[in-house]
Write a structure and sequence with these properties.
single chain, about 120 residues, mainly alpha
Length: about 120
């Protein structure tokens, strides 16, 4: 993985999560801002999939367990669409909060993927 890209992904996911949680707690149902923020998180995750495929061929192989890494990545890619689908089906303030929780979960998962990719065994 690329450290600056990981940090950018975490920052965007945290910002999207906080935005959605605040919007939900003030009573706003899902809107362009909340759904768009999760769409941005999803676009970055799709770019991460491309990076994860290309990086080993460019001399940056995963040092940790590749199966664990890919399970985290696939799960993270599925979270934003699931959160948006829930939000569009329910259309309440709490579904906006759920989208925020999904974005924050993605931030944690992306950081965990960085740790798995760069771990060094003794």
């Amino acid at each position: 993985m690329i450290l600056w890209f990981t940090l950018a992904q975490v920052a965007v996911a945290v910002a999207a999560g906080l935005l959605c949680i605040v919007l939900g707690l003030v009573g706003r149902p899902p809107s362009d801002a909340s759904v768009g923020s999760l769409a941005l998180v999803e676009i970055l995750l799709i770019a991460q999939v491309v990076v994860a495929i290309v990086a080993p061929f460019a001399g940056n192989p995963a040092l940790g367990n590749p199966l664990e890494y890919w399970v985290y990545l696939v799960s993270a890619v599925l979270l934003p669409p699931a959160g948006v689908a829930w939000a569009l089906l329910e259309r309440s303030r709490w579904s906006t909060v759920i989208m925020g929780a999904a974005a924050l979960a993605v931030a944690v998962m992306v950081w965990r993927m960085e740790v798995i990719w760069t771990v060094q065994y003794a």
